[in-house]
Amino acid sequence: MMKRRNLLKSAAGIMFCGCGLKHAAEAATATRDQAPAHHKLPVIVGGKRVRSIDVHAHCFFPAAFMALDGKIDSHIPKTKGAHDFLLTAEDAQAMARRMAQMDAMGIDTEVLSVNPFWYGTPRELSQKIVRINNEAMAALTHAHPDRFAGFCSLSLQFPDLAVQELEDAIKVKGLKGAAIGAHVAGLDFADPKFDPVWAKAEALDAALFIHPASTPQLNKRFQGNGWLSNVIGNPLDTSIALEHLIFQGTLDKFPKLKVIAAHGGGYLPSYAERMDYGCYVSPANCDPAIRLKKQPTEYLRQMYYDVLVFSPEALRHLIAEVGVSQLMLGTDHPIPWNEHPIDRMFEGHLLNDRQRRAIIHENAARVLRI
Hints:
Blueprint: H1 4-9, H2 21-29, E1 43-45, E2 48-50, E3 53-58, H3 62-68, H4 92-105, E4 109-113, H5 123-143, E5 148-150, H6 159-171, E6 177-180, H7 195-204, E7 207-210, H8 219-222, H9 228-231, H10 233-247, H11 250-253, E8 259-261, H12 275-281, E9 304-306, H13 312-322, E10 327-328, H14 341-344, H15 353-368
Parallel strand pairs: 3-4, 4-5, 6-7, 7-8, 8-9, 9-10
Antiparallel strand pairs: 1-2
Helix pairs in contact: 3-5, 6-7
């Protein structure tokens, strides 16, 4: 992994914000994980400052859990970094800690999302939780517009309500799209009942960030060592969601829909070409009434993906399947899956500076209008 001191040797015109000369020198010679947490570490690509955007970062708002069942701790993931999930504009200490962590990672802006936990609730309760989330997200992003943007929450189990929530979130609250699960209490997004939501998202030019919540049908097999419910279950959940959007013709109905898939799109890009053979090999398992406009693999290049993959080879393959124009930074912060996201853009000499700028900033800025 390229250390920051090596990166800075080749950079010109570096500016350290809010630091004296002594502190600037210290920051310039420190590796990212050793740098003082209160110093902004600018990202330099090809001698030019690039504002980094992380499209995959999480938070929870305590008031939403209180509305659900009055419990907070039981809903926080049992992972490293869990204590940093709770975030509100009013909590100055939590905000300062989050920004210091972002600085240490080289992240200028996080696009925050709340993983859905309300898809099984009744209409009024879901509406209340979503309202709390969206109002808190708007307050947070308006308080610090240079550091945070936000995806809204939606009551997807009630599509008519979700349409209203999405329009309010985009037009009134200034959020950048919606964070959704990979299914709604077991119902896939390709079900026609969700079409009004996708139509509204397309009309608003609002992105949909798909984040999985494991594959609960396999819970028994996931038991045992290794946290398989996440390590296998999360990428699988996303893969199934994307496959249904493709094969059920949803992406043909909504060709301008902006879908951003977490974790590099799950397993789908790793074995995509098998999709192109399924209906040829077994026509009996395919619906003759659904006639796709393109080869299944071609739809991968109209969706977007974060680069939360774990090696230069994995990134190389993702680029080969979907193209650099479809990729964005994603860290899963505050869970420490990727604590050095900028350094990874320089691993293995895989990317040129134009491609680095695209992934670090330009693609997300274009798609999310940041």
